[in-house]
Amino acid sequence: MKNPIASWRDSVIAIAFFVLLALASLGMWAIRSSDKALATSVFQSSQRLEWTSSKARAACIVAEWKDARCKDCVHTVKRGIWIDSLLFVPFYSTLLALCCFWIGKHDGQGNPLLAPAVLFGYASWLAGILDWVENTGMLLQLRGSNGLAPLTGTAANLKWLIVIVVSLFVDFVAVRKFLVFCEDRVHRQEHGGG
User: Fold this and answer.
1) Are the beta carbons of 88 and 80 closer than 8 angstroms?
2) Is the pTM value of this prediction over 0.85?
3) Is the Cβ–Cβ distance between 159 and 47 less than 8 Å?
4) What SS3 state is found at 107?
């Protein structure tokens, strides 16, 4: 599988990393800021429909948001889902992909533990696509299509499975690189290299 950043300089990768990290953080902040308007609702997150595969439970959540006591909740939820779709999903999934592609570029050759790095990079983008499927399902559920709850829930579960596996892989490599760095530094100090 081709690594899309194989020819990139590390300085370009570093800039892309920090830009994506900033944009994903901005998206997460925007979602949380938007969701503050749901304080009067029992379900205080615009992503609440993500966590149910039950048609009945989805109908209950939507009914709560449409209740007159929950002022503008449906509008707030829709706004949160759109913010997630446009300002968070593309950036978190590409950030994870970039980390995996970088690992594949530097450590993937000849190391069987790191060989799947490029595959995990593409899987990160698949997680983003599943997130968009989930968000589309949630928007349709807000319009009364609660029969989509099983599809929405399945997309969310698959997305989270991919994100967790890829994140653990990236964390494993980061810890491994840090330990090797520390070991090299101790080795240099022991041999007068400072």
Assistant:
1) no
2) yes
3) no
4) coil
